[in-house]
Amino acid sequence: MKSSTDNQAADQISSLLTLINEAARTLQATYINGSGFVPSLDDTQPHPLDGKLSAPEMKEAVQLLEGACAQLCATLARPNHTVLNKFFLTALEPNCLRVALTCQIPDILQEKPSGMHVTEIGQRCGVEPSKLARILRLLSAKHCFREVERDTFGNNRLSVQLLASNPLYSLGLHMTGDTTEGATKLAETLADPQWGPSFLPVHSPWNKFTGQPMPMFDFWAQNPDMHARGERFGIGMIGWGTAVEAAAVVTAYPWSDLGPGATVCDLGGGVGAMAIQLARAHPRIHLKLQDLPDRMLQAETEVWPKACPEAIAEKRIQFQAIDFFVDLPIAGCDVYYLKNILHAFSTSRCLTILKGIRKSMKPSSRVLIHEYILQTAESGDKPANKQLKNAPAPLLNNYGEGRIRQYYLDVSLMVLVNSQERTLEEYVELGEEAGLKFMKVWEFGDMSGVELCAMEDN
Fold it and tell me: 181, 322, 294: which is closest to 227 by C-alpha?
């Protein structure tokens, strides 16, 4: 006789299958309506939709598909099978991927679209062919590269994203290098009686691995030999922003309501990846880009002259170096925009940044914090304007693996700089302590925005 629990489990399986089917059909229709065909994994040329921002329904469908597929497999497969495959063995993947990146195998394979034998690949990159074949075979089984025939490999839709000309290449070197290496000391760091309870940036697993006595970004900035590492990270962040479609903020936030000549300060904007998007989409906005001196020099002399020379010619962009913890931002801007900034710092340092902005604001100024906002499994009974959208049942409220990036990034920050992603409540509390009042939470696809204004002075 079936129990109510048995019936509930069966109902959940049916609901997950329905979500998967509906999401897949939505994505298939989106591709066909947008270009007339669905991309093949074997394609090496970009699909026409690849370079465009995903429509909200497409983004939602991908999150539902990934979340439901992962939950279905975790439900139906034997638990020891899932733990072995999804948690233990995947630790090898970043190291195999690093081989492909450092050897620039995707670039080599571009010379023979039909496939290249591993003997030739090995000769070109200086790696023993039979060992290289085993690594490429594992990656091909994960659909990154394709094994055309035994020991002959070619690029595919995923591996061409790893070409050295793609900013994701730089991101991959960072993630499979600093992040993966630092993560090997995560358990040891958490167990350390001094470092484990600490939130100082010098008590990160990265510090434990490298033995460096200063925070990672400071180490890069203060050591000439590491400047290239900082530049690579800056380029990698362009790749990250493109992959997570951070540019959704350009269309989802009402920038045009600011009016002609409005000023937006992209604070900590690196070389200006997002500011470039804003400059192209909203030519009436005047932009102020502020970051460390090295990034400002790189932005002004290398990146913007190539990517957005019209903004320079029309004097719509100003470059000004800043140290968050010493200098105040440019005063009187209409919007102070912080993308992926506060997550890199402890609560006390975030307050220093926000209080500095508060001092620079005019009464009508806004602060837009563009970050991942952590969703927990419990949604609570909160007003709609004070919480993010929940996934449909029976998925986890936070979409599970459909929005897994926020949790990966949260742990990555712990590993590299001993910082964190935050919940909406934590951002609201930070703002209030800095003299800023919560206005609205925005959903920008993967990422979200917290809009704040100045509290009235007593």
Answer: 294
Instruction: Compute the average pLDDT of residues 116-142.
Output: 98
Do residues 115 and 152 lie in contact, with contact meaning Cβ atoms separated by under 8 Å? Answer: yes
Residue 370: DSSP 8-state: E
The catalytic residue among 203, 286, 343, 370 is 343
The answer to whether residue 412 scores a pLDDT higher than 80 is yes
CA distance 422 to 375: 9
Where residue 140 sits, what CATH number does that domain have?
Answer: 1.10.10.10
For the chain, what percentages of helix, strand and coil (3-state, to nearest 5) are there?
A: 55, 10, 35
Check residue 379 and give its pLDDT: 56
Domain C-terminal end among 18, 46, 76: 76
pTM comes to 0.91
Task: Give the amino acid at 65.
Answer: L
Residue at 230: amino acid letter = G
Indicate whether 431 and 355 sit together in one domain.
yes
Q: Does 393 lie in the same domain as 435? A: no
| Token pair in block for residue 412 | 């990555």
Regarding whether 267 and 121 lie in a shared domain, the answer is no
In a 3-state reduction of DSSP, which class is residue 320?
Answer: strand
Range of the domain at 363: 245-373+422-454
Q: Kindly state the tokens that stand for 125.
A: 């990159």
- Determine the pLDDT at residue 376: 81
Does residue 404 sit in the same domain as residue 368? no
Does 157 score more than 90 pLDDT? yes
Q: State pLDDT tens for residues 219-252.
A: 998 999 898 998 899 889 889 988 999 989 999 9
Contact between 226 and 217 (Cβ < 8 Å)? no
Q: What's the total number of domains in the chain?
A: 4
Lowest mean pLDDT among 108-122, 265-279, 365-379, 438-452: 365-379
* Catalytic residue flag (residue 343): yes
